[in-house]
Design brief:
The chain is of the alpha/beta class. It is built from ten helices and 13 strands. α6 links the parallel β10 (214-220) and β11. The structure holds flavin mononucleotide. Residues 22-25, 57-58, 100, 165, 167-168, 218, 252, 257, 286-289, 309-312, 348 line the site of flavin mononucleotide.
Length: 351
């Protein structure tokens, strides 16, 4: 019988348990993407709180392309020594840490008039209305270089790996969609072509960080929207990435989680379970993981290896230690004692 507290090897990463802090944008980096003391304090608490692996909030890879304020940056070599403080701290506290890297694209309302935003095709974003510039081949090459350079910096800064953000409607995730990607060249049209940008980004990262470094990806199992990626397409892409040597896959999805009721706990479990049957790379399940008992059951009835949470750690950074000490009740918000840090009561941030 498998336990959520098993030691687990995620390629080069020896983790003390199967719990992951999913990427969580804290809105606390400074204007240039550098860490603040408040931000460092959050990572200190979460890593002391017993989680095996932390995935940082998304970090922007090009100085001119920042989809949200207060984000971490990784767009220049200055960040290498800067992040040493963070990676040393997390390692001292007994956890491992992966940097999530992103190119935002048109899914943003942040400073859109001041900057050039790249997209697969020049179509208006369904929610923001932003129309990006369709990337030409040299811009695609530059995008791949941004991802690869960011990964090399992460490695030099002591991160245990990188996670490519391929989920939640940002540029890479848009490349699969037949609405956001209407290209007629090698990057558009067939599913094989629409998968190309992501597989090329992965390959460029891999080429630059080497075979021994952990490279993960976060993917929607489905966008659950018209013209978005569906489950079959996600599986196709993940099988390709698996063959190319991806080290772990975090399975998320496009449902509006804040609108779902509690009984939708571990909402993408079925999809992640099917994916885990079809690929070699370890699968991390994210999305409304809340109770220990449910995760334990999923662990023992599927091939899913790890469980990732965002809001429970905002509410209670020490959650894993509490569970480890035998109190297996769901996380309670440290602000109001009732919600799960889901902002129902304004309890979104750790105090
Ligand atoms: C405040 C907040 C910030 C988030 N920031 C990121 C992010 O930077 N990158 C990312 O991939 N997902 C981000 N997410 C999504 C989470 O990683 C996770 O997929 C989602 O919240 C579902 O997990 P949960 O139900 O445990 O919160 C964020 C979620 C929240 C609540």
């Amino acid at each position: 019988m498998k336990s959520l507290f098993d030691n687990i090897n995620l390629k080069n990463l020896n983790l003390k348990n199967r719990f992951v802090r999913s990427a969580t944008w804290e809105k606390l980096a400074d204007d240039n993407g550098f860490m603040t003391d408040k931000l460092l304090n959050i990572y200190d608490r979460v890593s002391k709180g017993g989680v095996g692996l932390i995935i940082t909030s998304y970090a922007y890879i090009s100085e001119t392309e920042k989809p949200n304020k207060g984000m971490l940056g990784i767009y220049s070599d200055t960040f290498i020594s800067h992040y040493k403080k963070l990676t040393d701290l997390v390692h001292k506290n007994g956890s491992k840490i992966i940097l999530q890297i992103v190119y935002g694209g048109s899914q943003t309302k942040y400073n859109t008039s001041d900057r050039l935003i790249w997209g697969m095709s020049s179509v208006p974003h369904k929610k923001t209305g932003v129309i990006p510039k369709e990337m030409n081949q040299s811009e695609i090459n530059l995008l791949k270089k941004y991802f690869a350079d960011a990964s090399v910096r992460a490695k030099k800064a002591g991160f245990d790996g990188v996670q490519i953000h391929g989920a939640h409607g940002y540029l890479l995730s848009q490349s699969l969609s037949t609405y956001y990607n209407q290209r007629k060249d090698l990057y558009g049209g067939s599913l094989e072509n629409r998968s190309r940008l992501i597989t090329e980004v992965y390959s460029e990262v891999r080429k630059n960080v080497g075979d021994d470094y952990h490279v993960s990806i976060k993917i929607n199992c489905s966008d659950f929207e018209e013209y978005g990626t569906d489950f079959e397409q996600s599986v196709y892409l993940l099988q390709k990435l698996d063959k190319l040597g991806i080290d772990s896959v975090e399975v998320s999805g496009g449902k509006k989680l804040s609108q779902l009721k509690e009984h939708m706990e571990s909402v993408y479990a079925w999809y992640a379970g099917e994916i885990a049957k079809k690929i070699k790379a370890p699968v991390i399940l994210v999305g409304l993981n809340r109770s220990y008992a449910t995760m334990d059951k999923i662990l023992n009835t599927t091939d899913i290896d790890l469980f990732s949470m965002a809001r429970p750690f905002l509410a209670e950074p020490e959650l894993i230690n509490r569970w480890g000490n035998g109190d297996l009740s769901n996380s309670k918000c440290i602000s109001c004692g009732k919600c799960y840090g889901e902002n129902e009561n304004g309890c979104i941030m750790v105090k």
